[in-house]
Design goal:
This protein is an alpha/beta fold. Helix content is 45%, strand content 16%. The protein has one domain: Rossmann fold, CATH 3.40.50.300. The chain has nine helices and ten strands. Strands 2-3-1-4-10 form a five-stranded parallel sheet, sandwiched between helices. The chain has a three-stranded antiparallel sheet with strand order 6-5-9. Strands 7-8 form a two-stranded antiparallel sheet. Helix 1 crosses helix 9. The two termini are 14 Å apart. The model has no long low-confidence stretch (mean pLDDT 91).
């Protein structure tokens, strides 16, 4: 099954995509990771990406699409794949539709107020990159546990120092959410009109959310008689 995860920055797209990818054993494709891999391996695409980056320009959609087309034509994508971080705009979604069908779009919902609170409470281990949350959300039906380190300011895994990322502050997060609202939110209607979209309210811990998302995908698959591989 070919799936896309949509949702505002900080809603957990990366976490859910990678957990569902390991559940169904289909690749989790993040365009950010693909860019980094092409740059690192100095491929033809990587060289082009580098030129755009060096001249301070955004990488054009044509290159991103070319890169995705290569990736999803590989053998491991035969049973499906999960796209995380793409498409971000309507023109990208239109280009994507030319190279592949999409079966399911999972749209994660979480209020801006909570997204801002969560981003500002995020702490990252500066040595191993492990992520913690110094806040517990308990608002009506939304109950999201914190991920507190055992010792304040120290990573549980490697005892490295926990830091707040520079752009995890209220002003920057608000900017990211504004960009999302302008560029990416229109995709919700784009896919809704095609009958592919399932709204999911993020309200629990990731484990509980993953089972809710799996359930939603299964019921969509039944509704549209999509072939789905339940093999675990
Ligand atoms: Zn660490």
């Amino acid at each position: 099954m070919k799936k896309i995860f949509l949702g505002p920055p900080g809603s957990g797209k990366g976490t859910y995509s990678s957990r569902i990818s390991s559940f169904w054993k289909i690749p989790h494709i993040s365009t950010g990771d693909l860019f980094r891999a092409h740059l690192k391996n100095q491929t033809e695409i990587g060289k082009q990406i580098k030129e755009f980056m060096n001249s301070g320009n955004l990488v054009p959609d044509t290159i991103t699409i070319e890169m995705l087309k290569n990736r999803i034509s590989q053998n491991d994508c035969k049973k499906g794949f999960i796209l995380d971080g793409f498409p971000r705009t309507i023109p990208q979604a239109e280009e994507l539709a030319k190279i592949t069908d999409i079966d399911v779009v999972i749209n994660l919902n979480l209020s801006n107020e909570i997204l801002i609170k969560k981003a500002c409470a995020r702490r990252v281990c500066q040595d191993c990159g492990d992520i913690y949350s110094t806040i517990e959300i308990n608002q009506g039906e939304i109950k999201m546990p914190g991920m507190f380190p055992k010792e304040e300011g120290k990573c549980d895994k490697c005892h490295g120092e926990l830091m707040q990322r520079k752009d995890d502050n209220e002003a920057t997060v608000k900017e990211r959410l504004e960009t999302f609202k302008n560029q990416t939110a229109p995709l919700i209607d784009f896919y809704k009109n095609n009958g592919l979209l399932k709204d999911i309210q993020v309200k629990y811990n990731p484990t509980k959310m993953v089972s809710e998302i799996l359930q939603a995908i299964k019921s969509l698959a039944e509704k549209y008689e999509l072939s789905i591989d339940y093999e675990k």
